[in-house]
Amino acid sequence: MTITEIISTPGEILKEEFLAPLGISQYRLAQAVGKPQSAISDIIHNRRTITPEMARLLGEALGTSTEFWLTLQASYQAKTIDSDDRPPIASLIQN
Fold first, then answer.
1. Whole-model pTM?
2. Domain that holds residue 73
């Protein structure tokens, strides 16, 4: 099991914690925020990140804060960053 299999994506949280329990379709959310349904679908399927603009729109439509969605996105990205794909970095600060 990899770490991405146990960490919920922001899109999964959107779908499972907001849309499903509230009976809101992706289409209805897209209409409410003035974006194409494909944008909501892409977030739910982890093909698109939640931008600051989308975070504001989701917050207004779903009664949360902009920061809630931005924090979900940033936390997910921080937990799933692949350090194997980057060259070693030498510390510039000596302890």
1. 0.83
2. 8-78
